[in-house]
Amino acid sequence: MSEPVFTVSPAVGTGWLVRQGVAGEADFFADRRLAIEHAQALALAARPALVRVLRASGRVEDEWFFGPAKGVRRVGPLAPRSALG
To answer: In 3-state terms, what secondary structure has residue 63?
Structure first.
């Protein structure tokens, strides 16, 4: 079984969405930081889990892996921000 992935992505128009997996129901947040904090709290409760922040283009901007014990490891971004588009 693979770990759950909590995705933070821009909403259409304004705001940010947090969802588990690709087709999960989304929670709406007006503030990006609050959306990321919510996703991180969900990942802490579901560890091991991954939080992935996407840009409007769909590219990964940042990722954190919440390990099975107590560790949190930042695993992204893989490229400089200027290359993420």
So the answer is: strand
How many angstroms separate the CA atoms of 26 and 36, rounded?
Answer: 13
Cis previous bond, 4, omega within 30: no
Please give the pLDDT value at position 85: 43
- Rg (alpha carbons) of the chain, rounded to whole number: 12
Helices (H), the chain: 32-45, 81-84
- CA-to-CA distance for 66 and 77, rounded, in angstroms? 16
Q: Could you tell me the pTM of the whole model?
A: 0.82
CA atoms within 13 A on the CB side of 31: 4
DSSP 26: P
What pLDDT sits at residue 63?
94
